[in-house]
Write a structure and sequence with these properties.
24% strand; GMP Synthetase, Chain A, domain 3; metal-binding; 4 iron, 4 sulfur cluster binding; Rossmann fold; alpha/beta; ATP binding; single chain; binds adenosine-5'-triphosphate; Iron-sulfur cluster carrier protein; iron-sulfur; globular; 8-stranded mixed β-sheet; 3-stranded mixed β-sheet
Length: 366
């Protein structure tokens, strides 16, 4: 049997990337083809390390080689990932950050910061480079959730400009207004001053190359939200809500705000936090304390993806208080819930990036 590189590519051109609806060869996702007798190996470059379709794509590649070349071929599919971006190298604001994702909730206290901190951790665990900006100036809780509440970011000079170095914890680069203004002084940050300080803080941080920068926005719909998402080209926003009526009503206002024509930030999805309570000793029991399926209905109403349910469990609260996000070492249900959210969000980012017209890359000095 004489297998050629062309034959391998031809076989793989029959495999469609399920989300992007184009074949792997057209999408330039096939690399490093190697052929040795009846052994064939190649690398598939995924659009995110958090790709939930990894195993499905691997299986389809193996099947395609067996079907189009020979059943007896020994196939090795290696997987790597290069996170896609439509902003990489095209914008003077954070040009080395591939995707900026804002996390918003209409109502306070729905667990936005908890979800954000676990999301950052889950993406990092998948192999992505992640930064986290805690823009919740009225109650910056990210430093506590990452055990760095006494963090004092250092400043370094780059090309004559003072840049802030983020504090790194558990592999995530973190900047919080809490590092600058202790909680008791948060009241000094008001309106335009807060917006200006935040935007400057964001741009003056030496993030380095990032696949995802998550911004934990303050609760509600304020000038700060508008200034931030207009100052930084944002890939999209994730809406966090609980199933409760009052939380949903505020989440609706949030979605409507981001969708205003002059704002026009894509809503990447909705996640329902505190979806149900599960006691540790009865893991199969679900109690719908705040109501049921409200987040799902919200996503249906606005035609945006529903990215999952996060249970109300003690581990999640404890993780936040102890400075280690629960996705790091909680029980399987909690870990799966946050990993599923990270995969779903990364998938929506990849789909969005693929649907954007390719912008001309411009060289920008950082
Ligand atoms: N799924 C969950 N299970 C258990 N506890 C949770 C869960 N989500 C959030 N919490 C707890 O609820 C409280 C509020 O969460 P968090 O600070 O994340 O909310 P927030 O929406 O960011 O609040 P704010 O409006 O102040 O920014 C915290 O004590 C957190 O530990």
């Amino acid at each position: 049997m004489n297998i050629t590189q062309e034959a391998v590519l031809k076989a793989l051109s029959t495999v469609e990337e399920p989300d992007l609806k184009k074949d792997l060869v057209t999408l330039n996702m096939v690399d490093k083809i190697s052929i040795d007798g009846n052994k064939v190996s190649f690398t598939i470059i995924l659009t995110t390390p958090a790709c939930p379709l990894k195993e499905l794509i691997r299986k389809r590649c193996e099947d395609a080689i067996h079907e189009h070349i020979n059943k007896k071929v020994e196939v090795t599919v290696n997987m790597t990932a290069e996170v896609t971006s439509t902003r990489f190298g095209t914008t003077p604001v954070l040009p080395k950050v591939k995707n900026v994702i804002a996390i918003a909730s209409g109502k306070g206290g729905v667990g936005k910061s908890t979800v954000t901190s676990n999301l950052a951790m889950a993406l990092t665990k998948s192999g992505a480079k992640v930064g986290l900006l805690d823009a919740d100036i009225y109650g910056p809780s990210i430093p506590t959730m990452y055990g760095v509440e006494n963090g004092k970011p250092e400043v370094t000079e780059v090309d004559g400009k003072n840049m802030i170095l983020p504090i790194e914890s558990l592999g995530v680069k973190i900047i919080s207004m809490g590092f600058l203004a202790p909680a008791e002084n948060a009241v000094v940050w008001r309106g335009p001053m807060a917006s200006k300080a935040l935007t400057q803080f964001l741009g003056d941080t030496l993030w380095g190359e990032l696949d995802y920068l998550l911004i934990d926005l303050p609760p509600g719909t304020s000038d700060i939200h508008l200034t931030l998402v207009q100052a930084v080209p944002v890939t999209g926003v994730l809406i966090v809500t609980t199933p409760q009526k009052v939380a949903l009503a505020d989440a609706i206002k949030g979605v409507a705000m981001f969708r205003q024509p002059q704002i026009n930030v894509p809503v990447l999805g909705v996640v329902e936090n505190m979806a149900y309570f599960t006691p540790a000793e009865l893991p199969d029991n679900k109690y719908y304390i705040f109501g049921k399926d409200g987040g799902k209905e919200l996503s249906r109403r606005f035609g945006v993806p529903f990215l999952g349910e996060i249970p109300l469990v003690q581990d999640i609260r404890e993780g936040g208080d102890n400075g280690v996000p629960a996705v790091q070492d909680a029980d399987e249900t909690t870990v799966k819930a946050f990993e599923g959210l990270a995969q779903g969000l990364a998938q929506q980012v990849a789909i969005r990036n693929a649907s954007q017209p390719k912008t001309q890359k411009v060289e920008i000095k950082v």
